[in-house]
Amino acid sequence: MKPVAYLLALACATTLAHAETPEHYHYGMHLDIAKVISQTLPQGCEAGEARMVYLDSKGEQHTLIYQRIGEDCRY
């Protein structure tokens, strides 16, 4: 029983170690986006926070937070 508990604890610790901190976009920032995994966009016509999860050319996952106008906005 103890080896199973040890392996479970190790798996949880490994998952937490790989948790990433989202980056906030700034003008001129170099982005290496090979594949977009998901995207969350603000609502309405106001500028709001958007979030994109993507893989870079090395296959590493990143989360980027940036400002944009909502997708429902029509002028």
Description:
The chain is of the alpha+beta class. It has one domain: Spermidine Synthase, Chain: A, domain 2. Helix content is 21%, strand content 35%. It has one helix at residues 2-17, and strands at 23-24, 35-40, 47-55, 61-69. Strands 1-4-3-2 form a four-stranded mixed beta sheet, with no helix packed on it. A hairpin with a 5-residue loop joins strand 3 (47-55) and strand 4. The mean pLDDT is 82.
In short:
This protein is of the alpha+beta class.
What are the defining features of this structure?
DUF2790, signal, four-stranded mixed beta sheet, DUF2790 domain-containing protein, elongated, 75 residues
Beta-strand segment tally: 4
The H/E string reads HEEEE
CATH architecture classification name: Roll
The first-level CATH class name: Mainly Beta
Straight-line N-to-C gap: 64 Å
- What is the count of helical runs? 1
The total domain count is: 1
Helix fraction bin:
10-25%
How would a textbook summarize the main sheet? Answer: 4 strands, mixed
Radius of gyration from CA coordinates? 18 Å
General shape: elongated
Mean pLDDT: 82
Here the CATH topology equals Spermidine Synthase, Chain: A, domain 2
* Secondary structural class: alpha+beta
List unreliable stretches of 5+ residues: none
Portion in strands:
25-35%
Strands ordered across the widest β-sheet: 1-4-3-2
CATH homologous superfamily grouping: Protein of unknown function DUF2790
